[in-house]
Amino acid sequence: MRVAMVGQPSPPLAALTGALAALGHEVVVHGHDEVDADLVDRLREAWRDDPPEVVHAHSWLSGMATALAVGEQPIATVLSVPTTANVDPDVQRLERLVWRRIDRVLAASGGQVRRITALGVPRSQITVVPHGVDHQLFTPEGPRASKGARYRLLGVGDLVTHHRFDLPISVLAALGDTELVIAGGPVDDNPEADRLIRCARHYGVADRLHLLGPVDDMPALYRSADIVVCTPARSTFGTVALEAMACGVPVVAAAVGGLSDTVVSEVTGLLVPPLRPAELARAVRHLLADSALREAFGAAGRDRACARYSWERVAADTCRAYARAAYGAAPALQRS
Known about the structure:
Elements (H helix, E strand, L loop, with lengths): L1 E6 L3 H12 L3 E6 L5 H12 L5 E4 L2 H11 L5 E5 L8 H11 L4 E4 L2 H9 L7 E3 L22 E6 L9 H10 L2 E6 L7 H12 L6 E5 L4 H6 L3 E4 L8 H8 L4 E4 L4 H4 L6 E4 L4 H12 L2 H18 L2 H16 L10
Parallel strand pairs: 1-2, 1-3, 3-4, 4-5, 5-6, 7-8, 7-10, 8-9, 10-11, 11-12
Helix pairs in contact: 1-13, 2-3, 3-4, 6-11, 9-12
C-alpha cells in the first residue's frame, strides 16, 4: 500500500513509518512546521500525478490541509487526533469540519473515543490504535543508573504544571527512606521547577527531590526505579507508563486519558484517582512494602508492552484502519 504521512516530525511518527515500511508498505512523509496554503499546494502537487492510496494526517490542522489537497481524488484519508481536548468553540468548529472530510479517525484510547464522539464523529468511523513503544530499546535487561539505598520513585516529563509532579513530592514525607527523581526540563529559569523546589522545602523533603533535567539514557534510569509515578491532571497518551512497563518497572498512575487503558490496575501497576495525594501515597506505600508484588507487576507490564504496544502491532492495527478507510471510499468532499 502507498501511504503518505502528513504531520510534524516526531519520534512516534518516525517509529510508525519504520514499522509500516517493515511490513512492506511504501511510505512517504510530508513533514511540516506550519499548516498554511503553501503546505496545501505542496501536497496537491505531490499527489497530482502519483497519488497515494491512503493519506494519514497527524493533527486536526494536518487533516484540514490533507482534505484540501486531496480534493476530489479517490484517496482514502485517515486522521490521528491529538491527546488533549480544546474547549475553544472556534477550534471545535474546525474539528467538526475536518472530520466530515476524513474517511477514518484514529483514537489512541477509550477516553479519546468519548471526546471525539462528543464532537459528533460516529463511533463506526473511529478505530482505536494506541501509541507504541520500542520494546527492544526499553528492556528490563541492561545497565541501571546509579542509586543509593533509598527506594526510588521516578517521574518523567517536561516540567510543566499539568504534569503535577507536586503530587508525588507531597507524599514523600509520609514514605520515608524514599527519593523522587524527575527526568525532564527545563530546570534552569523555569518557574515550574522553582515551584517544585519550594514545594519540596514546604514538605521538608528537599534533600530527597532530584531534578535531573533531560536524560539521554532513559532505559537505564527507568531500570533504576522501584516505581514510576505518572500523575498528570489531564489526558495523556501514557508513553512514560509504556516505557516503564517495557523496562519491567511497576507504575502508579492517575486514571486519566490513555493511562487508564495502558496501566491495568492490580496487574501491571496501580491506578489512583487523579489529584488525590492520599490515594497516591497509599498506593505507593503498598507497592514499596511488597517487593514480590513489584516484581510481578513489572513482569506483567513487560509482557503487556510487548504484546499490545509494540510498533509492529501498532503498525498492523493501523494497516487494518487504512483498509477500512480505503474500502469503497468515495471522494471525501462528496460526503455531507
